[in-house]
């Protein structure tokens, strides 16, 4: 059986959590392959709104196994909070959640290093989620990291101490004022590690290999979005992992020729949280309306998300890099009531019209070129079938399909599981 992928195509927060939850009924296994608690994946059903950070979004379906893959970075403290928040749902977590031994651990000092690095950058800061993501992946690639499997060794605390001591010296190097009580942070960390150790650690690549042989259906859940990819995103304003399709191979140990459908998810407009260029960003009433109606606040940090029109230059680039085979358009309902909609179909780049995503999209180089389309007034949130969708929305969808050359299979019209229209 092939492994299907679900990936965000913009700057994150496209609605991955909702769609993975919806799709889980079709899968036996949901596997996260990268990122960590910088992610905030929101699910809504039965009047409940729930945000997951590290735990895969299939967790509410008792029928599915959820795997945290080797490419993920885990903060035991946040993980424990996530587990505590799930207690009220009476799930048998130990039997539906497995953790890769090769996943790296976020130490309290990784979080401090993230804060120190951001403070030292001043105005040039990345606007990271301050969850220690960058420093943890730096230790991974620098071959200094601690992995989940290390917790099974009797001397893991010695390894921890050596790394934490090094981090403390590095924090000093940044020469910035950050206050912390490491004893307190460590007490929380050690308590949380004990909780993590109660779960089942596996060699997830072997588990997934066998599952494929047994014909199990597997969906790999991405975090962040393609424009935050460490290689292909708007560097340096990106995260520290490969958020694109190839990341699922390295983050789970799945061979490239075993990848099946690549489901790409995007908002009907664009948002971004944190620093970095965003050509179609709006600073007017339209942007304010998108933020208010779309409730655009970060699910992890609560920061307001920057909003703007759909950027087809960027979206085409993401479709291309990921080899997207089907698309899902989220939050179309948020655009109801706009008389006119704009879609960016090309950039004016240093005075020349281009339709590819260039090396540098800083505002001084790039001005978006828009195609204007009619909006629709109707409320979409109660609609359940494709034939109810208003003609102007169908025209918007047809236009995007033609430009992107990939079918839009799902149109989401609200945050709830049930507000999902198949085409
Ligand atoms: P993720 O990180 O990709 O899982 O997305 P987030 O959960 O961070 O952000 C998406 C937000 O939009 C969440 O608050 C969802 O509940 C909400 N959402 C998802 N789909 C829709 C939709 O079609 N319409 C509306 N109005 N909200 C949606
Ligand atoms: P989900 O999975 C949106 C952004 C941060 C910052 C940059 C680097 O919910 O879509 P990091 O903490 O990773 O070092 O921050 O990436 N960022 C996200 N933005 N959604 C996310 O995840 C994000 N994860 C990181 O705001 O600009
Ligand atoms: Mg999110």
Number of beta strands: 20
Query: How is the largest sheet built, in terms of strand order?
Result: 9-7-5-2-10-1-11-15-19-20
| Structural class designation | alpha/beta
- Percent in strands: 15-25%
The quaternary organization reads as single chain
For the biggest sheet, the summary is: 10 strands, mixed
Could you list the spans in which at least 5 consecutive residues all have pLDDT below 50?
A: none
Shape type: globular
Bound molecules: guanosine-5'-diphosphate, 6-O-phosphoryl inosine monophosphate, magnesium ion
- Gap between N and C termini: 25 Å
Q: What gyration radius follows from the Cα positions, in whole Å?
A: 21 Å
- Number of separate helices: 12
Helix content range: 25-40%
| Mean pLDDT value | 97
Structure in words:
The model has no long low-confidence stretch (mean pLDDT 97). This protein starts with a strand and ends with a strand. It has a 10-stranded mixed sheet with strand order 9-7-5-2-10-1-11-15-19-20, with helices on both faces. Strands 14, 16, 17 and 18 form a 4-stranded mixed sheet that branches. It has 423 residues and is of the alpha/beta class. 31% of the residues lie in helices and 22% in strands. Helix 2 packs across helix 7, helix 4 packs across helix 5 and helix 4 (108-121) packs parallel to helix 6. Bound molecules: guanosine-5'-diphosphate, 6-O-phosphoryl inosine monophosphate and magnesium ion. The site of guanosine-5'-diphosphate (GDP) has 23 residues, from helix 1 and strand 3.
